[in-house]
C-alpha cells in the first residue's frame, strides 16, 4: 500500500512540476521573447523551447515512468505498452516540430546551424530518442522479434531511456543559458544585472533540473519497479496478445 | 567472474575518459584561453574549469563507484569508506579552489557573480556536494550515529550522490557553452563558424557527457552492486571497526 501512495504523491508532484515547466516556458517566450508565429521569424524560433520542454522533457518523463504505475503491474501489459509508445510518439512529433522551428528560423535569418555545444547535445538526445523509439517499436510491439532478442535488448532500452533524461536536462539548461546571453546582451539591463526575465528563465532552468532529477529518482527506487520485470513481459508482442 | 571482468573493463574505459576530460580541459585553457596564474586575471579564471572538471566530475565519479569495485565486497569496509571519503575530500578541496578562482577573477575585473543559470546550477551542485560530505562523514565515519539513522540515511546519501553526476554534467556543459559564446564573439572566426577551439571544446563537452552517463550506467547496473548492500555496512562506523 505504501509504495502505491508514495508513487501517487510523487506522480502528483511530477505532474505539477511538468505543467509548471511548460507554463513557464510558454510565459517566457510569450511575454519576453515576442510570442509565436510559423514564418521563419524569431517568433517561429519560440516554438523550439516550448516543443522541446513539452515533448523531450515532460512527455518523455511521463513515458519512462509508465511501467512504474502500480496499476500496470497486474493484468495485460499491452495497454501500458501502447500508452508508452503513444506518449513517446507524441513527444517525437513535438521534437520534430521543435527542430523544424529552429532550423527554419536559422535558415531564414542566415544564422548557422549546429555549431554550439547545446545543439550538439540536443541533436544527440534527438538521435538517441529516435533510435529508442524505432528499436522499441520493432522489438516490443511488432511480433517478429525473437524472445532472446527482447530479453537481451530490454535492459539496453531501459538504460538508454533513463539516460535521455540527464541529456535533455543538460540540453535545456545550456539552451536557456545561451538564449539569455544572446537576448540580454544589448538590453539596458543585461543578464549580469538579473532583470525579471533572467530570474524567471533561471527559475525555469531549476524547475527543469528538479523535474529531471525526480524522474531519475522515481526510476531508480527499487520499490516502484514492476515486480516481474524480467519475466513474461519481454515475451508479449502486440500480435500475440490473445494467445 | 563476468561481473568482475566487465567492471574492470568499464573502469579502464572510465579512467581513460576521465583523464581525457582533464587533459582536454587543461589543453583548452592553456592553448586557447591563455594559460594559468593566480592573480585575479582571466588566467586565474582558467583554473575554474580545470578544478571543476577534475574535482566535481572525475574525482566525484571515481568516488561514487568505490563500492562497485568487486574487491570491496568482502573483507572490512573501512578502507573503502576511507577511500570514498578521501576522494570526495580531494574533490571538495578542488571545488573550493575552483570557486575561489572564478569569484576572485570576477571581483578583480568588476564582473557580476552568480547571475547565469550555469552559476545557479553549479552552486546548487556545490551545496549538495558539501551537504553530502558533511552528512556522510557524520553518519558513516563518526561513531555516534545510531544504526536506525544510518539505515534511514544511506539510500538518501546514495541517491543524492548519483544525482550530483547529472547536475555536474549540466553545469559543465552550460559553462563550456557560455564560455565559448563569451570568447568567440568578437574574434575573426566566431563560434558559429566552428573554429578549431569550438570543435575542441564541444568535443570536451561530449566527453564529459559520455563520462557522466557511463558513471550513471555503472551505478545503475544491479550486477555491480555490493551484494550485502543493506546489511552490516550501515552498522560499521570508524571507531567500532575492531569490535
From TrEMBL, chains A, B:
<comment type="subunit">
    <text>Homodimer.</text>
</comment>
<keyword id="KW-0472">Membrane</keyword>
<feature type="transmembrane region" description="Helical">
    <location>
        <begin position="123"/>
        <end position="144"/>
    </location>
</feature>
<keyword id="KW-1133">Transmembrane helix</keyword>
<feature type="transmembrane region" description="Helical">
    <location>
        <begin position="156"/>
        <end position="176"/>
    </location>
</feature>
<keyword id="KW-0479">Metal-binding</keyword>
<dbReference type="InterPro" id="IPR006593">
    <property type="entry name" value="Cyt_b561/ferric_Rdtase_TM"/>
</dbReference>
<keyword id="KW-0812">Transmembrane</keyword>
<keyword id="KW-0349">Heme</keyword>
<dbReference type="GO" id="GO:0046872">
    <property type="term" value="F:metal ion binding"/>
</dbReference>
<keyword id="KW-0967">Endosome</keyword>
<keyword id="KW-0813">Transport</keyword>
<keyword id="KW-0560">Oxidoreductase</keyword>
<dbReference type="GO" id="GO:0005765">
    <property type="term" value="C:lysosomal membrane"/>
</dbReference>
<keyword id="KW-1278">Translocase</keyword>
<protein>
    <recommendedName>
        <fullName>Lysosomal membrane ascorbate-dependent ferrireductase CYB561A3</fullName>
        <ecNumber>7.2.1.3</ecNumber>
    </recommendedName>
</protein>
<keyword id="KW-0458">Lysosome</keyword>
<feature type="transmembrane region" description="Helical">
    <location>
        <begin position="49"/>
        <end position="70"/>
    </location>
</feature>
<keyword id="KW-0325">Glycoprotein</keyword>
<comment type="function">
    <text>Transmembrane reductase that uses ascorbate as an electron donor in the cytoplasm and transfers electrons across membranes to reduce iron cations Fe(3+) into Fe(2+) in the lumen of the late endosome and lysosome. Reduced iron can then be extruded from the late endosome and lysosome to the cytoplasm by divalent metal-specific transporters. It is therefore most probably involved in endosomal and lysosomal cellular iron homeostasis.</text>
</comment>
<dbReference type="GO" id="GO:0140571">
    <property type="term" value="F:transmembrane ascorbate ferrireductase activity"/>
</dbReference>
<keyword id="KW-0249">Electron transport</keyword>
<feature type="domain" description="Cytochrome b561">
    <location>
        <begin position="13"/>
        <end position="220"/>
    </location>
</feature>
<dbReference type="Pfam" id="PF03188">
    <property type="entry name" value="Cytochrom_B561"/>
</dbReference>
<feature type="transmembrane region" description="Helical">
    <location>
        <begin position="7"/>
        <end position="29"/>
    </location>
</feature>
<dbReference type="GO" id="GO:0031902">
    <property type="term" value="C:late endosome membrane"/>
</dbReference>
<feature type="transmembrane region" description="Helical">
    <location>
        <begin position="196"/>
        <end position="220"/>
    </location>
</feature>
<keyword id="KW-0408">Iron</keyword>
<feature type="transmembrane region" description="Helical">
    <location>
        <begin position="82"/>
        <end position="103"/>
    </location>
</feature>
<dbReference type="InterPro" id="IPR043205">
    <property type="entry name" value="CYB561/CYBRD1-like"/>
</dbReference>
Amino acid at each position: 500500500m505504501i509504495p502505491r501512495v508514495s508513487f501517487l504523491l510523487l506522480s502528483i508532484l511530477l505532474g505539477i512540476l511538468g505543467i509548471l515547466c511548460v507554463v513557464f516556458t510558454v510565459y517566457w517566450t510569450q511575454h519576453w521573447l515576442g510570442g509565436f508565429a510559423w514564418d521563419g521569424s524569431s517568433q517561429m524560433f519560440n516554438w523550439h523551447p516550448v516543443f522541446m520542454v513539452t515533448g523531450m522533457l515532460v512527455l518523455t518523463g511521463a513515458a519512462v515512468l509508465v511501467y512504474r504505475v502500480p496499476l500496470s503491474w497486474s493484468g495485460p501489459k499491452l495497454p501500458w505498452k501502447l500508452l508508452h509508445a503513444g506518449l513517446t510518439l507524441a513527444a517525437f512529433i513535438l521534437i520534430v516540430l521543435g527542430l523544424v522551428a529552429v532550423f527554419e528560423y536559422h535558415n531564414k535569418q542566415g544564422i548557422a546551424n549546429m555549431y554550439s555545444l547545446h545543439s550538439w547535445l540536443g541533436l544527440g538526445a534527438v538521435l538517441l530518442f529516435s533510435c529508442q523509439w524505432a528499436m522499441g517499436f520493432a522489438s516490443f510491439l511488432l511480433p517478429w522479434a525473437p524472445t532472446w532478442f527482447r530479453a537481451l535488448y530490454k535492459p539496453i532500452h531501459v538504460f538508454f531511456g533513463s539516460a535521455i533524461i540527464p541529456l535533455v536536462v543538460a540540453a535545456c539548461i545550456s539552451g536557456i543559458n545561451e538564449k539569455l546571453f544572446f537576448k540580454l546582451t544589448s538590453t539596458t539591463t543585461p543578464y549580469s544585472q538579473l532583470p525579471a526575465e533572467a530570474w524567471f528563465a533561471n527559475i525555469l532552468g531549476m524547475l527543469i533540473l528538479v523535474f529531471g532529477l525526480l524522474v531519475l529518482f522515481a526510476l531508480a527506487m527499487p520499490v516502484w519497479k514492476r515486480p516481474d520485470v524480467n519475466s513474461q513481459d519481454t515475451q508479449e508482442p502486440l500480435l500475440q496478445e490473445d494467445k
